[in-house]
Amino acid sequence: MKNINIQTLVRWVVISVLFMSKTVSAQSSNPFGIPTEEVQTPAANVVAAPGSRAQGWLNQGRSEVIARHGIVATSDTLAAQAGLEILQRGGNAIDAAVAAGAVLDVTSQNDTGIAGDLFALVYIAEEQKLYALNSAGWAPTGWTPEFFKDELGLEGVPGSGVNAATVPGAISGYDALLERFGSLGFEETFERAAQIAEEGWGQGERRHRDLVSAQNRLSNDEYSAQIFLEDGKAPDLYSIINNPDLADALRLIQKEGRDAFYKGAIAEALVARVQAGDGVMTHADLADFESEWVEPITTNYHGYDIFQLPPPGQGWAALQMLNILEVCAPVHEINLTALGPSNSDYWHFMVEAKKLAYSDLQAYNGDPLFVDVPIDKLLDKSYAASLCDRIDMNSASEPSVRGGLDGGTIYLTTADRWGNMVSFIHSIFSVYGSAVAIPPYGMVLHNRGVAFSIDPESPNLVAPRKRPFHSIIAGFVMQNGDPLMTFGNMGGAVQPETHAQHMVNVIDHGMNIQMTTDAARFTHNQNSNRLSLEHSLYNLVGRALEAKGHDVRTVSGSAVGGYQGVLFTKDPNLPVPIFSQESIDEDHPVNGIYRAGSDHRKDGGAVGW
Fold first, then answer.
1. Which of 12, 282, 420, 423 is deepest in the core (most CB within 10 A)?
2. Distance CA 421, CA 419 (A)
3. Residue 324 in contact with residue 387, Cβ under 8 Å?
4. Of 431, 424, 430, nearest in space to 405 by CA
5. How far apart are CA 125 and CA 574, in angstroms?
6. Are the CB atoms for 428 and 164 separated by under 8 Å?
7. 13 C-beta neighbours (distance < 10 Å), count
């Protein structure tokens, strides 16, 4: 007993000495992932193996969110919560989409804003009909090839500055959605966004990275630097950001509606800033603008009807790519389901189909009010069949038409207890758009005009009140006339190719709504003919694709954009809920189940109740 006590005493003495010694310091220099001046993104320096799920696909990053009263999926958790609040207060999916979008206009001006554009596909359960809204702004009346060549001395429409911006269409789009299908107005749907702009929000990893990448561009505009930077630099990761000037703009729109933006004080400020920068946008360009309700376009892929918006959006390239995959697979004696996404032939076939669809996209896409875009021909299965012999399963091809622009956006989706579903995309194009902010309203101006050309042979030849080639697209799936799925994938040129990949994932491989985004993706650059694979996919098939002649590189998830999706499974034994003003306060579920997924590559998530 005496020896044990002595040994115990010795142990405690040793432990005490070690505890007091400065040489024993087994802790991170950034505990809890808190940034320091020396290490601004601590998580990037941690080497660790990822954990695995306990069920399902073990590499799936998140579970699907399952709900019956309503569901929202966005790239920002604050936006998702704002949409959910609206649903819980009795608003419908359209109201929730506007509320979520407005919050993103505050927290995500790296991707979107009230001085951007938007598109939406809206399923109205009571009518059993899918509607499409094009709210892409048009070029100022003074925009001609001569204006850019002769007056500005440029070789094309610039990617930054006030002459990169067409008329912003977003607020008109919000108004069109609320007026036609909403049950609330700007006052209710913009409230959470205005509050966040006033009180401040935390700067997350992805948006911090974007701000760091854009700080030099933003520094060139005094007001942009004032709004977004601190002493010429991006605020620290996790710091509190606020934008009271933007809150003022949102409060004006709450009070005065769309007129505040297109005819009132915001319009005055916008025109003044543009013209001060040698731009030619006028009050009439803003006041005359209206969003356009258009007919969705569609193709059937393996028994499912996939919908997109028509030109000038690029969604039809996703439909054409799916047609090529469906029609040409038997010609080349392959089956995507049998091959599976671990086979290099599978990816080679996908990439070659993408090159064909994007060649037509670059050759034909433009504003259908100004140019003929032969959509019926391009989406005909027989036309897809005529392209099959241009695919060589043993050799990578050169794109017959090159082109395409990178950019960013936000995509969100909502669904309510009456069965209404919204697929919604909204953008300022490049990171922080034109890098010009409009004083005194805290909003950055988009740069969609850069997609115009001054080449007289281009379908995107710049012209007064013409809309440019648009990268943002929203997807929708139906079967036998019933709504099935909303989906979208953020990014610029990556969007059609990723839409097609998601449809192959869920239809041909049976992936769930979350798994499709957690699976690795490719993106192919139509200009350089370079194929980019996420790291794990490159390790799996990269060398084999290089052997077929592809110029392959490995990339992080930032290159393939970010996805959201909602699946609706109807219960045929339950009655269809009827939406009416009298039923707005009734707490009843939809006649089935909503399942949602959200991309782990972004900062958001899906929520439901």
1. 423
2. 6
3. yes
4. 430
5. 14
6. no
7. 10
DSSP string, 88-138: HTT--HHHHHHHHHHHHHHHTTTT--TTSEEEEEEEETTTTEEEEEEEPPP
How far does CA 170 lie from the centroid of its chain? 15
Tell me the C-alpha distance between 351 and 414, whole Å: 31
d(CA 40, CA 145): 45
CA 452/CA 236 separation, integer angstroms = 36
Reference 136, options 311, 317, 270; nearest CA is 311
Residue at token pair 């399952």: 66
Q: Identify the bridge partners of residue 387 per DSSP, sorted by sequence position.
A: none
Contact by Cβ (8 Å): 75, 599: yes
Enter the tokens of residue 314.
């690029």
Q: Alpha-carbon distance 442 to 433, whole Å?
A: 13
Contacts of 102 (CB under 8 A, 6+ apart): 82, 114, 174, 189, 190, 192, 193, 250
Bridge-based pairing state of the strands 292-294 and 129-135: antiparallel
Give per-residue pLDDT as tens, 535-592: 999 999 999 999 999 999 999 888 999 999 999 999 988 888 776 545 556 678 999 9
Query: Which distant-in-sequence residues (6+ apart) come within 8 Å of 193 by Cβ?
Result: 82, 99, 102, 103, 105, 106, 250
Range 297-314 burial, b when 16+ CB lie within 10 A, else e: bbbebeebbbbbbbbbbb
In the block, which residue shows the tokens 């601190």?
A: 230
Buried b (16+ CB within 10 A) or exposed e, 193-216: bbebbbeebebbebbbbbbeebbe
Here the tokens at position 364 are 């034909």
Residue written as tokens 């809309």?
467
- Which residue is associated with the tokens 């009140």? 465
Tally helices (H) and strands (E) across the chain.
Answer: 22, 21
Residues in the chain: 609
* Residue-wise pLDDT tens digits, 227-278: 999 999 999 999 999 999 999 999 999 999 999 999 999 999 999 999 999 9
Q: Rounded distance, CA 346 to CA 334, Å?
A: 8
